[in-house]
Amino acid sequence: MQPAALPKYPEIALTGHWSAKVLLGVSVDLAGRPKSMRVEKLELSGGPKYAPGTTRDEELIRHAFEAATIEAAKLWRFKDCTEYGWPAARSAMVPVDFHWDAATDKPAAANAPATKH
Fold first, then answer.
1. What is the pLDDT of residue 59?
2. Which of 26, 14, 7 lies closest to 69 in space, CA to CA?
3. pLDDT by residue (tens digit) across 33-50?
4. Extents of the domains making up the chain
5. For position 16, what pLDDT does the model report?
6. Measured at the alpha carbon of residue 96, what is the angle toward residues 57 and 72, in degrees to the nearest 5?
7. Per CATH, is 11-107 categorized as 3.40.50?
8. What does the radius of gyration of the chain's CA atoms come to, in whole angstroms?
9. CB distance 100 to 18 below 8 Å
10. pLDDT range class, residue 100, cuts 50, 70, 90
């Protein structure tokens, strides 16, 4: 995969110092372009510490991370989508990590692995 665009850290997640690990399922067409994407798993961490059991703003934060991941994935291109030398549609699971760096009190760049699928 060649990430032509890394996901942008969502603005709404900045104020609460939220981090997220996203697992994105991607179906790839014969040319290596994503044709459909679906967030398979999303784990939130960080954020303001409210009373136990409180989910204040978590759905908005979750949606922002999902949207940022999918927007970037639309620009990705996958290489070597072949089978026995012929172009072939594929699917892949791509982990994307949004990490808040406590040492600098800033978001670290979101990343996605640059691997072949």
1. 87
2. 7
3. 899 999 999 999 887 766
4. 11-107
5. 81
6. 85
7. no
8. 16
9. yes
10. confident
